[in-house]
Amino acid sequence: MIDLELLQHAVMDSRDGIAIADARAEDLPLIFVNPAFERMTGYSHDEVLGRNCRFLQNGRIDPESRAEMRAALRKGQGFSKVVTNYRKDDTPFWNELSISPIHTERGAVTHFIGFQKDVTQRLLVDEELRARNRDLESAKKALEELVTLDALTGVYNRRHFDDRMESLWKISSRTGESMAIFFIDIDYFKTFNDHFGHQAGDEALIQVAQTLAESFQRGSDFLARYGGEEFVVVACGMDQEPARYFAERLCERVRELDFDNPDTESGRLTISVGYTVVTPHGGLNAQTVIERADQALFEAKKAGRDRACEATGSTHGWAPARRSYEVSRRSNS
């Protein structure tokens, strides 16, 4: 059996607060607190004896913690939680509280002993570390956006497209899904810039990019600014007919934007679209398909612009289609 004098010194010299409450008396009054409890709370021994320890909440009740504690004590069980308490001068501190029941030989609970540790500094350091981590994550995200996003339009840039295209191609190769690739170019953009100024040109690029983003909103769609006035869209899982519809609809939607362009046949800002739909297999690679879609764009521009042109395959390989979907003429017919 441990020496009682040694036990008393251990309790009195402990750096953690120790308090004992009488479980047999009404409202669980305190019957003992050690010097560390006094230093931690600012209350003297005489000020707290006979009182329930709820005075440490200073009228600021945490309903959840109170309910948990009451339920545990009512069952004669222990309770542990970090809670907010208040010193005598009303300054808050974080209290790592642990309460244990003291039983008689027959198992009856006679007292509760509570151990308090002031963990305020530790939690402040933890919160500072979390804040720094949040700042680092924000900085990392900003850096990633700087590296992957086009600064003007907010869509992905060419570098990220080159990286992402290979992974999208591999995914489609594994799943066997079709893939549609669209190349979009603003018609006569240089002369538009020269005529209306670079500010108007930037605004046109932004609105065209926004129109494309609104048109391709699936999680598997990928939009990037390919360079200058050219954009590229990769739509995994898209078949030929939906691709044809989207290509034609893009031409319509851009023409509906509030931009004039005296160099185009319609007098409006227009785009040309080249696209192809493929199912990746061993005889194809991503670069070949990109070149086919880009060639289809060239065919659309050569055929008069403001239209969509598809590169189709044949038994002899892939070649640009010679058919163009002249949206403006079809819609007026």
Automatic annotation (TrEMBL):
It catalyses: 2 GTP = 3',3'-c-di-GMP + 2 diphosphate. The gene is wspR. Residues 77-131 form the PAC domain. The lineage of its organism: Bacteria, Pseudomonadati, Pseudomonadota, Gammaproteobacteria, Salinisphaerales. PANTHER family: DIGUANYLATE CYCLASE DGCM-RELATED, REGULATORY COMPONENTS OF SENSORY TRANSDUCTION SYSTEM. SMART domains: GGDEF, PAC, PAS. Its cofactor is Mg(2+). It holds the Pfam family PAS_9. The keyword Lyase does not apply. This is diguanylate cyclase.
